[in-house]
Specification:
Strand order of the largest sheet of chain B: 1-2
Strand content of chain A: under 5%
Structural class of chain A: mainly alpha
Order of helices and strands of chain A: HHHHHHHHHHEEHHHHHHHHHHHHHH
Radius of gyration of chain A: 22 Å
Distance between the termini of chain A: 63 Å
Number of strands of chain B: 2
Largest sheet of chain B: 2 strands, parallel
Strand order of the largest sheet of chain A: 1-2
Largest sheet of chain A: 2 strands, antiparallel
Number of strands of chain A: 2
Oligomer: heterodimer
Structural class of chain B: mainly alpha
Largest interface: A-B, 63 and 67 residues
Helix content of chain B: over 70%
Strand content of chain B: under 5%
Number of helices of chain B: 7
Distance between the termini of chain B: 72 Å
Shape of chain B: flat
Shape of chain A: globular
Chain lengths: 500, 163
């Protein structure tokens, strides 16, 4: 790609500001609301995007998609309810910061982290697209099984203070994710006789129950989210925390860069997605930190890492779609439908036949991020004041509105009941130290994990040793075992240091 | 300072639920082809093994006097229990009645009951807040996002007037 082309692309994408901005605003709102995501919003807006010229449609879709990732972090920080599954890791340190009266700081940090990691992922994608596009080809079913187990193990180790409890929560989620008809013979399993569960456990009600309903039930035991000094700090009406967060982010720029790159790489892997990326980035950040014990208690680097991983995924998901014609996720699949409707053929020839569109997508994404930061950072100061509302108002509003939103994914009243059941499971898990994030990620990964596992086993005619048959998989197995042993090793070293 | 005694009963609720579900799942896949049950066995056996470890850990903890088989943490603080149970009952009633009442009326009644259970007073504030939140939510879900949530007498009346 030449500099001339790059300049032209910037100019042409900048001219689409009038379509990028509404996409951003809608994306932030959609990301904020649990139950709505880029995928179902883009499906609802198909009549609009199909009627637009292809460049306009893509600018709108990508800006909306990126903004949902940013918007999902807002409720995760303010009320511990991730707007999207990818923001689950943001709750770990974002919400404790809010409880300390530093909601404005946490929000600004998440916005800056999201935007700059997204920008960096875009730049790297544009520069390395031909090489990145073939990366996904090296990960076959065997490697994907280990990648998912590795991701789940990381989450179990990070999210719960007790590794055993974390693993039980993760595998329980994975079992729940298996409910429904199997992929080969379509036989129902574990459905309790409910026809509504034949397609599997609906993800949106599970997310709403595990995070929104359970957290609202927890909130019922106190009058305010913040108290004492923290409340006084949250009440202060100035730009202080916004500026402090921007200074902090500038000082920790390296954290933003590499967590964005982690997100980009994971985004390229089909099926892995933002939820895994944000936890892997968070775990890596904690592992290399000088103060790992602060993670989970309101560590600012934890917010940057989770949001960095979450937003780095945006560019990555589009890479296999553009370069190979294989959508990296469900949102990319919806975008591909729009492109195919307009007669675009995805694959390597797109970059030679229509470089304006192929590279323009990423340049458009870059501009969306720039617009996003200008739009959202000034609002952090006002958004953070939501914590001043008393829980006697918040609890009924959160429970009833999110349960109503559980209807939106499949339009079954049954799904509202599913949200209540998951709410009770989430409440018990929260009260007893089984982290809900591990259960949720298990539920998300369950069907994908089964697909890859069965595919691998069919190739080997049922021999499980196939899971140890590739070098990449074996390296990942070693990492998996190390990630399980690492907390025990660190605890042992701390005990040894403490003993005289 | 010594640690407070652990409530091993509460700690075992999730493992027991997980084990019960796993056994039920394994039962439902018993007669299926190996492809349909491979994943269930792979994950289920690992989960049952972890649950067994957790049970053994709890038994050892109780035997050594580190805690008791109680469920205290799930119910504490006791003064919040009526609010929690009330909210759950209201939510279940909302889900059961929403196909007939529709989102607008159902949400208004459920919110008003919820605010009352949580302790919002006076009644005028309860009703006004419920009305505003229910109206905004109905417009957002039904008119803007077109989620297809059930329409009740209020939505039908508004539609008739709009026509």
């Amino acid at each position: 790609m030449t500099w001339d082309l790059l300049g032209q692309l910037f100019a042409s994408q900048l001219a689409l500001w009038w379509i990028i901005w509404p996409g951003i605003l809608l994306g932030i709102v959609v990301g904020f609301l649990p139950g709505f995501n880029a995928e179902n919003t883009l499906i609802m807006l198909l009549p609009l995007t199909l009627a637009m010229p292809v460049e306009h449609a893509f600018a709108f879709m990508t800006s909306l998609y990126c903004a949902t990732h940013l918007g999902g972090g807002i409720p995760a920080i303010l009320v511990r309810i991730p707007g999207t599954p990818g923001a689950a890791a943001t709750t770990l340190d974002g919400y404790p910061l809010t409880q300390q009266g530093r909601g404005q700081f946490a929000l600004t940090l998440s916005f800056v982290g999201s935007v700059f990691s997204g920008l960096i992922a875009c730049v790297v994608t544009v520069a390395l697209l031909p090489w990145l596009s073939v990366m996904g080809l090296y990960l076959r079913s065997v490697e994907m099984v280990v990648v998912m187990l590795f991701g789940l193990t990381l989450i179990a180790v990070i999210a719960a203070k007790d590794t055993l409890k974390g693993l039980i929560a993760g595998l329980f989620g994975l079992m729940i994710g298996m409910i429904g008809a199997d992929h080969i013979y379509n036989t129902p399993r574990g459905t309790f006789g409910f026809l509504e569960l034949y397609d599997g456990v609906p993800l949106v009600p599970a997310l709403i129950g595990l995070f929104a309903v359970s957290e609202a039930l927890m909130m019922a035991e106190r009058r305010l989210i913040t108290g004492g000094d923290a409340r006084a700090s949250a009440t202060r009406h100035d730009w202080g925390q916004t500026l402090e967060a921007m200074r902090y982010a500038a000082k920790h720029w390296w954290q933003i860069v590499w967590t964005g790159l982690v997100g980009l790489v994971i985004g390229i892997v089909p099926g892995a997605g933002a939820s895994i990326a944000s936890f892997v980035a968070y775990q890596q950040s904690r592992m290399w930190s000088k103060h790992p014990e602060r993670y989970g208690t309101g560590e600012p680097d934890g917010v940057i890492a989770a949001e960095g991983g979450n937003n780095g995924v945006c560019s990555g998901t589009l890479v296999p779609m553009m370069a190979l014609g294989v959508p990296g996720g469900s949102t990319a699949a919806v975008m591909m439908i729009v492109l195919q409707y307009h007669g675009m053929v995805m694959g390597p020839q797109l970059f030679t036949d229509n470089p304006q569109l192929a590279y323009g997508v990423f340049v458009g994404m870059l501009l969306s991020y720039l617009f996003m930061i200008l739009t959202i950072v000034p609002l952090a100061r006002y958004m953070s004041r939501i914590v001043l509302i008393e829980t006697i108002y918040l609890v009924p509003i959160i429970i009833l509105i999110t349960v109503a939103a559980a209807f939106s994914e499949r339009q079954y009243v049954f799904d509202m009941g599913v949200a209540i059941v998951f709410g009770l499971i989430g409440y018990i898990a929260n009260k007893t130290g089984y982290h809900v994030a591990a259960i949720l990620i298990g539920v998300i990964l369950g069907p994908i994990f089964e697909k890859y596992l069965v595919r691998a086993l069919r190739l080997s005619e049922g021999d499980p040793m196939i899971l140890f048959s590739s070098t990449i998989a074996n390296v990942l197995w070693v990492f998996l075992v190390l990630s399980l042993l690492f907390p025990a090793f660190r605890a042992w070293r701390a005990r040894r240091k403490a003993s005289p | 300072m010594s640690e407070p005694p652990k409530a091993y009963g509460a700690d075992l609720v999730i493992p027991v639920l997980a084990a019960a579900f796993t056994i039920y799942f394994l039962y439902t896949i018993a007669g299926l082809e190996w492809e349909a049950k491979a994943n269930g066995i792979f994950v289920g056996v690992a989960l049952l093994a972890l649950v067994a470890v957790q049970v053994v850990r709890s038994v050892i903890g109780i035997a050594r006097g580190r805690g008791r088989l109680t469920f205290g943490p799930l119910l504490e603080p006791r003064e919040a229990l009526p609010r929690r149970l009330g909210m759950m009952a209201i939510t279940i009633a909302f889900v059961i009645t929403v196909p007939w009442l529709g989102l607008g009326l159902g949400l208004f009644i459920a919110l008003a009951a919820g605010f009352a259970v949580m302790g919002v007073r006076p009644w005028r504030r309860v009703l006004l807040t419920s009305f505003i939140v229910a109206a905004v939510s109905t417009v957002l879900f039904n008119a803007v996002l077109d989620t297809g949530l059930p329409k009740g007498p209020v939505e039908k009346l508004v539609e008739r007037i709009a026509r």
